[in-house]
């Protein structure tokens, strides 16, 4: 049951990412000027809407990516104890990346 | 002492082929190769996200640091990489959508009596896969044109 719930979350984050990444790309590329210039980046960083989009992208992307990696590794029929270690390692790595990555847009917004 | 595979609880046979099964493990169908492509593109996108987040960290260094990293990322090798990421996203997203619909049973069709020659539901619904592949190629070519022009 736990694995089913994790898999359903994988589907939900996948569908969410389709729209979030699509919005991220379309709005960035269609905005006036070079999207990676300092002015464009600073302009987006000052917007609360972009901040919310970045945080959702980060949560959905990290969950989808790390759970996908876990699925690939678990398919190799690894024993129970290493599987438990893998779960905790991926959780810690995910939280560390989230902490680092969420600090950047929040710092820029403030 | 025997060790049990996590989550298997004697319900599944062990995965003896391991990673090698991604490439060959018998008479694979088209969908099995799409399974491999889904994993390869997924791992590529995961690597890209990690690099993208690390690159975003240069923003904290101010405008000079940002301009320096953008000059490096503007080189032609990175442009090719950027296109590959876009292509991987298209493949992963469309195939992922197909997998979700299939796992939830929407694209499997109605069950049929097992009359010889036997045709499984995947082969009966193969046109969906061909349509998806055509869409992937069309979008990948469109994005390539946008990148080049």
What does this structure look like?
The complex is a heterodimer of chains A (110) and B (149). Chain A is an all-alpha fold and 110 residues long. Chain A has one domain (2-109): 3 helical TM bundles of succinate and fumarate reductases. Helix content of chain A is 85%, strand content 0%. In chain A, helix 1 (2-30) packs across helix 3 and helix 3 packs antiparallel against helix 4 (80-109). The mean pLDDT of chain A is 88. Chain B has one domain: 3 helical TM bundles of succinate and fumarate reductases (Up-down Bundle), CATH 1.20.1300.10. Chain B is built from five helices and no strands. In chain B, 9% of the residues are buried. The mean pLDDT of chain B is 85. The A-B interface holds A 3, 11, 14-15, 17-18, 21, 36-38, 41, 45, 61, 65, 68-69, 72, 74-84, 97, 100-101, 104, 107-108 and B 3-8, 12, 14-15, 18-19, 39, 42-43, 45-46, 49-50, 53, 56-57, 59-60, 63, 66-67, 70, 73, 89, 93, 96-97, 100, 103.
The average pLDDT of chain A is: 88
Number of helices of chain A: 4
Number of DSSP E strands of chain B: 0
Spell out the helices and strands of chain A N to C: HHHH
Strand content of chain A: under 5%
Please give a handful of descriptors for the protein shown.
heterodimer; A: 110 residues; mainly alpha; 3 helical TM bundles of succinate and fumarate reductases; B: 149 residues; 5 helices; elongated
Question: Could you give a quick summary of the protein structure above?
Answer:
Chain A has 110 residues and is mostly helical.
Any chance you could write out the topology, listing elements then pairs?
The complex is a heterodimer of chains A (110) and B (149).
Chain A: H1 2-30, H2 38-45, H3 48-74, H4 80-109
Helix pairs in contact in A: 1-3, 3-4
Chain B: H1 30-56, H2 63-73, H3 76-103, H4 121-124, H5 126-148
